[in-house]
Amino acid sequence: MTIIGPRLPRDSQVRVMEDTVAQAEKHFGQFCSLLAAYARKTARLRDKADLLVRRLLDCADTEQPEMRAALRTLAEDLAKVQDYRQAEVERLEMKVINPLKLYGAQTKQTRAEIKKFKCVRNNEIKQLEKLEKLRQKSPSDRQTIAESSVQRATVDASCTTQQLQETIDTFQQQKLKDLQKIFSDFVTIELVFHAKAVEVYSSAFQTLESYDLERDLQDFRAKMHGVYGCYDARPLTTTTTSPGVPWSLAQSAQSTIRSQTKAAAGDEDSAEEGPAPDLGGRGPINNE
Amino acid sequence: MTIIGPRLPRDSQVRVMEDTVAQAEKHFGQFCSLLAAYARKTARLRDKADLLVRRLLDCADTEQPEMRAALRTLAEDLAKVQDYRQAEVERLEMKVINPLKLYGAQTKQTRAEIKKFKCVRNNEIKQLEKLEKLRQKSPSDRQTIAESSVQRATVDASCTTQQLQETIDTFQQQKLKDLQKIFSDFVTIELVFHAKAVEVYSSAFQTLESYDLERDLQDFRAKMHGVYGCYDARPLTTTTTSPGVPWSLAQSAQSTIRSQTKAAAGDEDSAEEGPAPDLGGRGPINNE
């Protein structure tokens, strides 16, 4: 059907529009699902780090005073980083993933406009087919009919083209703005998180660097000396001051010395008596 | 059996040692599996970001020149961050997880020493039991036997205690050093990664901020005008210069104009002709 020939540029226009919208829909859809996955993986990393915080506190409670303080500070710092990571996840949801989700509505609207344009175009084709039939019936009027049909198509097309141009222009402008906005927000969110992490980890590094091993060892040796001391001292004491004392009495005296040693050991008891009550919520660690 | 009474402090010693080793084994084991999980989650986050890099390049290839350049730079920056993340994962493996794994060997050795001590102790108990029997057989020698057994035990114990003290002291010292070293390394690795990420994202932010939307829109409108223009121009040309030209010829002329328009559009063709060859490896994006 030769009369549809000059319509080809309009096919091209529709194709360019459809491609533009389809590409945008595809890419924004992929970005949406990928960034949602990225946020989920970030949340899982946060969960693992949260477990590490608990274990650090757990370990701190069984350690020498200096190490206990260092591990507690490290746990607090690590928890802070996870709070920032949580904020990162929430911001990604709000400022990156949700806008990408909403973008679907925008492409739908543009699709509807393209569809409307296609209907208009199909009506024009039908009208041209009518003119073609008319032309075949009265070949003498051929030139007049052809010219009038072309002129009519030109007027219709320029009107529709105007609308199309506006639609695609608005769509493209919005798309470019959205791309810039969404990825600027993504980069800003990441930047803020990493900057906070640097701040917190710098402080954590200082804490660990200033850890006083010697002081802890002295403390440990003093406590161990208490435990060993009571043993070393006992046989001498019992044999010299009361050689005939029954074993049960010697044992009782020994218990008293051990009680004193335990009291002197103070917090260290928690190592033997189980975790401190404030640990709480010991979840399974292998729940991969 | 009363003669075992005075051995209680040694039970306490063993318990303290066993607790110290068991606590260390438990905590180091937990740290090891948690930090391995942390490294794995980090690697998965890197994988997602790597996919995002591909999609950004993919999208860039279908975009206007300014956006294309911006997205490519962003993709490069994001890829850089993933390289640093990869280095983070490798360093965690090497400097944190592997030492924690090796720590198991250390606790085993200490356990073996405790076991050895227990054997020595059991032998002493047996000897004391023999003495007890001897004492029951000849009650008159009770005092002599008791004193000699206590003295013997004292000598044995002070020797074993010395060894025990050294073992536990070495173990504790090494454990505290290891704790400090491992967590210092962890914090340093994290610190370096986050600092690098801040550097790269700062640059990425600048890139996106300096994106020139107007220039892209002008470029887009110029190209769209080419597509629309060939339609607007055609009917007038064909109707005025060759009113009687067959439709098929008009169509042919139109094809030439379209070819020129396509050539002028340049790279933009890739939008219609599929992805550029350098994209490669489009993996499934939903492989959670």
Automatic annotation (TrEMBL), chains A, B:
Domain of life: Eukaryota
GO CC annotation terms, alphabetical: centriole; ciliary basal body; ciliary transition zone
Pfam families the record matches: FAM92 (PF06730)
Family statement: Belongs to the CIBAR family.
Chain segments carrying region Disordered: 251-288
Name of the protein in its database record: CBY1 interacting BAR domain containing 2
Keyword rRNA processing carried by entry: no
GO biological process: cilium assembly
Keywords: Cell projection, Cilium biogenesis/degradation, Cytoplasm, Cytoskeleton
SUPFAM superfamilies assigned to the protein according to its UniProt record, in alphabetical order: BAR/IMD domain-like
Sequence ranges of Polar residues compositional bias: 251-262
Cellular localization per UniProt: Cytoplasm, Cytoskeleton, Cilium basal body; Cytoplasm, Cytoskeleton, Microtubule organizing center, Centrosome, Centriole
